[in-house]
Amino acid sequence: MPAAHPLPYLHGYPPELLEQVRELIDSGRLLQTVTRRHPEMHDIRTERALYDYVNEIKSSRMRSAPPIAKVAYDPKLHILKNALGTHCTVSRVQGSRLKSKREIRIATLFREAPADFLRMIVVHELAHLKERDHDKAFYALCAHMEPDYHQLEFDLRLWLTAQELAPAEPA
Ligand SMILES: [Zn+2]
């Protein structure tokens, strides 16, 4: 009997759920199942557009968070290793003062992703402006900003799993 697919993006989800995912993989229906649930793509291609998009969500749902200096698509970001994105405070010395700047980096993979997943990852990164760790308070904040957050994160993990199993054909 072949070893079951390890499903690294779905670590921690209940075994019976993973069993259903393996069935979708085995029948070749994982990607279509996810994209059918999230058919709409976004058109946020440039960093300027991404910056505006992030700030729009921030000002409507998390007004009190500190301002963001920079938003970027980052081709070097590895989703799995960096737990769905990174958020960081870059310290820069300016004269004798140390200035902190908030930056949000989104893996370039999200540039060609369903709109729901870009929104989910932006909510995730915005929540990190207030909560550093992936703990209860962090996820409560995510769900406050996006009521469907948990379903979206699960579906994103399914999508990432599908991408990894069947990489896009080179153009
Ligand atoms: Zn995170």
Molecular structure report:
The structure is a single chain. With 171 residues, the protein is an alpha+beta fold. The protein has a single domain (15-165), classed as Zincin-like (2-Layer Sandwich), CATH 3.30.2010. Helix content is 44%, strand content 15%. It has 6 helices and 3 strands; from the N terminus they run H-H-H-E-E-E-H-H-H. The protein has a 3-stranded mixed sheet. Helix 4 (115-127) packs across helix 5 (136-145) and helix 4 crosses helix 6 (149-165). It is globular. 25% of the residues are buried. Residues 85-94 have low confidence and may be disordered. Bound molecules: zinc ion. Zinc ion binds next to loops.
Radius of gyration: 17 Å
**The CATH topology is what?**
Zincin-like
Please give the alpha-carbon distance between the first and last residues. 36 Å
Count of distinct structural domains = 1
What structural class should be given to the helix and strand makeup?
alpha+beta
